[in-house]
Amino acid sequence: MAGVVVGLHVNPEGGVPKWPQPSLDITVDGCLGDRQNDTRHHGGPNRAVCLMKQSVLQALQKEGHPIGPGTTGENILIGGVDDLVLASETVLAIGSVRLELTGDAPPCKTIRASFTEGAFTALSHKRNQERTRWYARVLTPGRIELGDVVSLVNEDEPVGNQ
C-alpha cells in the first residue's frame, strides 16, 4: 500500500475548521501549531494526530454534504489508499514520521456544519467502519509535507526513535 499526503491542517485557536498547511512538525504531543479546545475528548498521547482518507471525504461530498479538507478536524488527509482498511494498531510511515493508529475519532456536534442538516454521525465508525477518522500516537516524530508518501510499516521493521 502506498498513498500520498494530500492535506495537512491545524488550528492554533482550537476547534474546527483546521487550516491548510504546506507541512506539519509532528511531536509526541501532536502537531505543532494545533490546539484542541476539548482535551477530555481530543489530544493527548493516544490522540496526538487525527487522520482521514480522502476517499471518505469524497464519498461524503458525493452525498451532498458540505464537508471539505480540515472541516472535521483531521490533521492529515491521505489520498490513494481507497482500498486500504485501517484499524487500531496499524502503523503508518509518512516520510520519517511513524504513527500508530489507536482508535476511531468519534464525531461530535462541533463538526455538524460539515454535514447536511447537521448529520455529523455520517462520519461515525459505529455506523460504517469504512467511514471514519482515526486517532494516532506518534512513534517517531518529524516533519510531514504535502506530497509525502504514506505506507504501511512492515510488522518486523523497527519503529520509534532510532
The rounded Rg comes to: 14 Å
Largest sheet: number of strands, sense, barrel closure: 7 strands, mixed, barrel
Low-confidence stretches: 158-162
Q: What is the arithmetic mean of pLDDT? A: 91
Beta-strand portion reads 25-35%
Helical content (DSSP H or I, runs of 4+):
under 10%
SSE succession: EEEEEHEEEEEE
- The CATH homologous superfamily is termed PK beta-barrel domain-like
What is the number of E strands? 11
CATH class: Mainly Beta
Q: How would you describe the shape?
A: globular
User: Helix segment count?
Assistant: 1
Write down the CATH topology.
M1 Pyruvate Kinase, Domain 3
Under the CATH scheme, the architecture is Beta Barrel
Whole-number count of domains: 1
Strand neighbour order, sheet with most strands:
1-6-5-9-8-7-11
Structural class: mainly beta
How is the quaternary structure best described?
A: single chain
Give the distance, in angstroms, between the N- and C-terminal Cα atoms: 23 Å
